[in-house]
Amino acid sequence: MAKVPFHYVDLRAFAYATEDEKRVADALRTFLPEDAELDRVENVGHHGDRIVVLSARVENADGMRHVLDRLSGLDEVDRVIDELDQRVDDNCALFLRVDKQAAFRGEVRLGPGITVRAKVEAYPAKKEAAVENARETLSRLRDDGDDET
User: Fold this and answer.
1) 3-state DSSP call for residue 128?
2) Which of 16, 72, 100, 139 has the greatest number of C-beta atoms within 10 Å?
3) pLDDT tens by residue, the chain, 149 residues
4) Is 141 helix (H, G, I), strand (E, B) or coil?
5) Nearest to 55 by CA among 39, 68, 33
6) Does pTM surpass 0.70?
7) CA atoms of 25 and 54, how far apart (whole Å)
8) How far apart are CA 27 and CA 25, in angstroms?
């Protein structure tokens, strides 16, 4: 993929008191380039429990290609393409949630645990243009993945 039609990609996961923070970080790193740094913020939940928010922002083209390459393994990519009108907001951001447990095992599938937010390039910056750019990119990812099988 030569051109990356995103300004940046944000990934975020919560490590709850009942979870091993290192395992959550490893799940998040499934999608990140090796040199990506994780930001860590410790919070307290409603009942006084510890919640650690782990996040990373990828802004360079090679890093975003890496994230997209990992997401190309998503079995439900056709579903995501069909749902783009609901997954892209008025600020041209594409939202996905991927399964944290699966990511820890190196698998990629939709589910709870890791939030992916990608700011889609769109000129003019309108939802319709962002949806179309995201559709083209995800279709290309799907088709490139089909060529490898």
Assistant:
1) helix
2) 100
3) 457 889 999 999 999 999 999 999 999 999 999 999 999 999 998 889 999 999 999 999 999 999 999 998 898 999 999 999 999 999 999 999 999 999 999 999 999 999 999 999 998 899 999 999 999 999 988 887 665 54
4) helix
5) 39
6) yes
7) 7
8) 5
